[in-house]
Amino acid sequence: MRDTRPLRRPRLPQLPRLPHLFALLAALLLPLGLLAPSATAASPPDATAAAGPVRIMPLGDSITGSPGCWRALLWNRLQDAGHTDIDFVGTLPPQGCGVAQDGDNEGHGGELVTNVASQGLLPARLAATLPDIAVMHFGTNDVWSNIAPDRVLAAYDTLLAQMRESNPDMRVLVAQLIPMNPATCAECAQRVVDLNARIPAWAARASTDRSPVVVVNQWTGFDTAADTYDGVHPNAAGDEKIAARWFPALAAQLATTPGGPGDPGDPDDPALTCTASFRSVSVWQGGHQAEVTVRNTSASPVRGWTVTLRPADGARVTQVWNGTLTTAADGAATVSDAGWNGALAAGASTAFGLIATTTAGSAAPAAIADCAATSAS
User: Fold this and answer.
1) Which end of the chain is more exposed for a tag (fewer CB within 10 A), N or C?
2) pLDDT tens-digit profile of 355-374?
3) CB-based contacts of 105: which residues, under 8 Å, 6+ apart?
4) Quick one: which of 366, 363, 361 has its CA closest to 319?
5) Are 155 and 282 within one domain?
6) Is 307 strand, coil or helix?
């Protein structure tokens, strides 16, 4: 039978107390330097703690988390670009994808951003993970539920306030949602357009120097027929597109400020180069929509880019998004980065969209002449 009685500590023999003797010895030896001072007089340890990794929270619904394989692609693109001191965080674990990754996330399938705001679900998740950057694609279920854009944006306000309460320096990348066209919701496609149209103005109003809010256009160039498996959730091709759109914006937030000899942009550094590739999205009588992908092809980061478009067959670029348009008298169009998408790591890319007027029979609105990059120094 096991003895469950508590163990008794053995009693040690009591040593005689000699306070007066010790005090006398201390008084005699301290002046001679033969007795060390107390530990409190020792040199304090270095209080400077090494900075930890940047903590990034992927935030949203099933498009982010179930399984949200774009996160794995994004993680690996960041690693390959040298952004290794990062930590994807969230209260949810990885959910497959078969790709090495840091899969922690906050993508809860079926959640509405309006419910997360009204029910106060985010603060506890923030407290558990302490993110520095939020990567947010949130509102698809609200659109499906016919929640008005005003209510969705009010929920964004609530979540942003909670993020800043958790971390006053929180940086937020907010997506213009990928398109949706489910068989059971004929109106959803237009509802996404309506919400996306409101997001840039919301972000401009909400952004501050200390806590910037950056819009990432996930809508343009995304095809629900080719890039989803059900009109809503991305397939492998869609995951690639989503990761490619997040990457330059997130890399820009992670980029450090170079300085000093030998940094990128010094006179002895290799030339900074970029390329611009043109892709037709849709054509109609008298008009054309296209997407231009800008890629940093140099070995150094850049902080800005400019693409020159020459008119073809009488075409004129009339509208640009994710870029700043300048048009010359001869119709030549110059598109510069929009600020938030100007910083590109070596090999990284971003994209802007355009609409052009065309003459009868014109197959393309413009031909790309050149791309120029600006040093990150």
Assistant:
1) N
2) 888 765 555 545 566 788 87
3) 57, 58, 59, 64, 65, 68, 71, 88, 90, 92, 94, 95
4) 366
5) no
6) strand
β-pair type (324-327, 171-176): unpaired
Q: For the CA atoms of 13, 17, 23, 25, what is the dihedral angle to 10 degrees?
A: -50
List, in sequence order, every beta strand (DSSP E) within 41-186.
54-60, 86-88, 106-107, 133-137, 171-176
What per-residue string of b and e applies to 269-297 under the rule 16 or more CB within 10 Å gives b? eeebebbbebeeeeeeeeebbbbbbbbbb
Are 346 and 234 within one domain? no
Alpha-carbon distance 228 to 77, whole Å?
Answer: 21
Q: What is the pLDDT of residues 234-293, one digit of tens each?
A: 999 999 999 999 998 899 898 842 333 233 333 333 446 788 888 888 888 888 888 888
Cut 0.90: pTM above it: no
Please say whether the dihedral angle defined by the alpha carbons of residues 243, 340, 356 and 194, taken in this order, is positive or negative.
positive
Domain shared by 250 and 102, yes or no: yes
* Residue ranges making up the domain that contains 359: 274-375
